[in-house]
Amino acid sequence: MSETTKTSWGPTRKPRPQRAPEPAAIDALTITPDRDDQTPRAPIPSDSAEIKAPKRGIEEAVVGWLVIVDGPGKGADFRIVSGINSVGKGGSARIRLEFGDKGIEEGAHCRVTFDPRSGGFYLSPGDGRFICYTNNKPVLSAQELEPMQDIVLGDTTLRFVPFCSPNFNWAENGRWE
User: Fold this and answer.
1) Averaged in consecutive runs of 10 residues, what is the pLDDT profile of the chain (177 residues)?
2) Which of 66, 87, 96, 129 has the fewest CB atoms within 10 Å, i.e. is most exposed?
3) Are 56 and 122 in contact (CB under 8 A)?
């Protein structure tokens, strides 16, 4: 039988000793008592801790972005990498526009290509029957993309934002090394 103590509001049980939390639980979140908001934060690594960046090859370095400026998914952005970037819905598209726009093709609706040798960007049609538009004209063959040019797929408008150019490129002599 456990011991009880008498209080002004009735008998209570003696508190059991608390076990110390597991080290993993302590490391998971840290609350700093002198902060006002008391939002749990991840602990700051000590000087001896090694901070590692995500492992990506130079082939995955960003060369530009597509940003949805109108339509479903407005405000979302997508990284463009060197080579051919298919844009559409579903698993075969590198840039997946999964925001419910029924006017976007499954797979490759269009392609945005970065050529590391020239530093140029190109827009070309995809594999399906849906057409993409730029400058209010259908894209029926590959054409050069200009900075801040809009691309329309279904009810979605994407704006092209380049990072690399003929003046800056991650590749040396057009080759990733």
Assistant:
1) 55 60 48 48 49 56 96 97 94 94 94 93 95 96 97 98 88 58
2) 129
3) no
CA distance 4 to 58: 68
- In this predicted model, what pLDDT tens digit does every residue of 64-76 receive, in sequence order? 999 999 999 999 9
152 strand-pairing partners: 133, 157
Nearest Cα to 66, choosing from 57, 58, 56, 78?
A: 78
At 121, is the secondary structure helix, strand, or coil? strand
Residue 85 is inside which H or E element, if any?
A: strand 83-88
- Three-state DSSP class for 136? coil
Question: How many other CB atoms are there within 10 angstroms of residue 21's CB atom?
Answer: 10
**88: in domain:** yes
Range of the domain at 72: 60-162
Write down the pTM of the prediction: 0.66
Q: Count of domains in the chain? A: 1
Please give the Cα distance from 91 to 95 (Å, whole number). 9
CATH classification at residue 114: 2.60.200.20
